[in-house]
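#help-structures

NK: newbie question. if I give both the sequence and a SMILES, will the prediction place the ligand too? trying with pyridoxal-5'-phosphate
OV: yes, paste both and it writes out the complex. here, I ran yours:
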Amino acid sequence: MKKTPFVTLEQVQEISKQYPTPYYLYEEAGIRSNARRLKQAFSWNKGFKEYFAVKATPNPFILKILQEEGCGVDCSSLTELCMAKALGFYGEEIKFSSNTTPAEEFVYAHKQNALINLDDFTHLAFLEKHLGALPETLCFRFNPGGLFSINNQIMDNPKEAKFGMTQEQIFEALRFAKQKGVKRFGLHSFLASNTLTNAYYPKLAEILFSLAAQIKNSLGIVIDFINLSGGIGIPYHPDESENDIFSIAEGIKKHYQDILIPAGLGGISLFTELGRYMLAPYGALITQTIHEKHIYKEYIGCDACAVNLMRPAMYKAYHHITVLGKENAPCDHLYDITGSLCENNDKFAIDRMLPKIDLGDYLFIHDTGAHGFAMGYNYNGKLRSAELLLQADGQVQLIRRAETIKDYFATFDFTELLTPDTYL
Ligand SMILES: *Cc1c(COP(=O)(O)O)cnc(C)c1O
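OV: that's the protein plus ligand as structure tokens.
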């Protein structure tokens, strides 16, 4: 899929006058139209709802946009639950999907009336102990074990994953929960990340639909909703092609008609918890080149580093880079694009063919709208960047200011020892 930046060099030059690089820039129009596409693709399912995985892009302004588009939120921690509450999400607009969960997080989620997704069988007793009683609605995370494959291609290895419960445990959990007065039940599973095949969601749906039919048969329990979680990928590399959300939804519909409807389960609502698919293409890390270095290889140093975007260092992930203003120039120079960390893996690109780069050029690092800023950290005393929103009307809004040295020092009582001119 051809990679085209959603801003021009002139726009970035203008924005950078007010907000120095590096910064994240998100595109409101793209976020909205994609969310609408998803909703339309699943419009055949009456109860369909996307619960955006907050961890992918935990910015309240972004969540607000998705809220306006009818999405709920999928939270994985107390902080994310607090953010959801602050934005006015309540009750079944919030899902709480966590593992190795501290008691106070369950208590807080329950206080918000959130839909709780249980990662383990033993959490039933844990919940009962800490909440006093089980909630009326509960969801259970399934781990089918073994290897998960599509068309003989291994996608992941659920047996090695720490998440979810076995089928026997799911049955036992449902039986126990029903006996304890739980009234509504959901199923959840997450088997592969960043999938670039329209077959992933339908395959997962088939597994969960069959499970729901079996549950009805042997326990007489009617499942209320099925949560397909996250995992739909995006083409990070220009050679990869895009998923088609309409054929994904059609594939699921077919299994719904073949498995759920004959089982008398035609009322089941489908939920998704997409993160990457909702946001990744609609965010970019913008950084300016500040050094070039010619040793055994050609290096371009920029003002962002791995603390701003960890994926290349952590997963060797490919992120396409456009040198703004040189979109049509030939890619006839071989570079490593680096940040300033004292770590040799601090490279946004290795052996990448790009147009000739001059100092001061702006780089647009594509597809960083999800799991980008969110995975930031402070190694080497580096600070988190600002996040900006390119609004649908063309205006740019600061949606998170850049961290300052003062923020860095805020967690220990050191600030007092510093004279004001020690930090900027
Ligand atoms: C991370 C996560 C998601 C979102 O995953 P994406 O790959 O961003 O779609 C959804 N649900 C759960 C439980 C997760 O942990």
